[in-house]
Amino acid sequence: MPSTPITPSDVLYTAVATAENGRDGRVATDDGRLDLVVGPPKEMGGSGTGTNPEQLFAAGYSACFQGALAVVARQEGADVSGSTVTAKVGIGRNDDGFGLLVEISAHLPALDGATARDLLEKAHQVCPYSKATRGDITVTLA
User: Which GO terms fall under biological process for this protein (predicted)?
Assistant: First the structure.
């Protein structure tokens, strides 16, 4: 069953970022904490010198998923200390332009494989990034 969308009164925090010149320019947050030169990777015809949107998405998704994993682990009484989550974000052509593909992998040194897999599946159900992309982006868990 799909989640109920949040309403403006449900919002706890809002991030604001502004881009100049799209994929080949600059992006900055309104609070000044993030101010980056962005540029397409060499594989997409760029110089590869700037941060690209896929890297930013991967950074946000991995951090959010790690947080969801910690929440699920607390609920299950599982130890995820020393864990890491990596998000690999690919971009490629699809039937209407471009699309994304994501692979989430986690290193959970204190857990056996079956327990780790169960926690990843549960975290994928509660992670806001996973919810937002469900049905539009192929996401695999490793």
Answer: response to oxidative stress
Class of domain 1-51: mainly beta
Q: Is 21 left (phi over 0), alpha (psi -120 to 50) or beta?
A: left
pLDDT at 66: 98
Express each pLDDT in 38-86 by its tens digit. 999 999 988 888 999 999 999 999 999 999 999 999 999 999 999 999 9
Q: What burial class does residue 52 get, using C-beta atoms within 10 Å of its C-beta: 0-12 exposed, 13-18 middle, 19+ buried?
A: buried
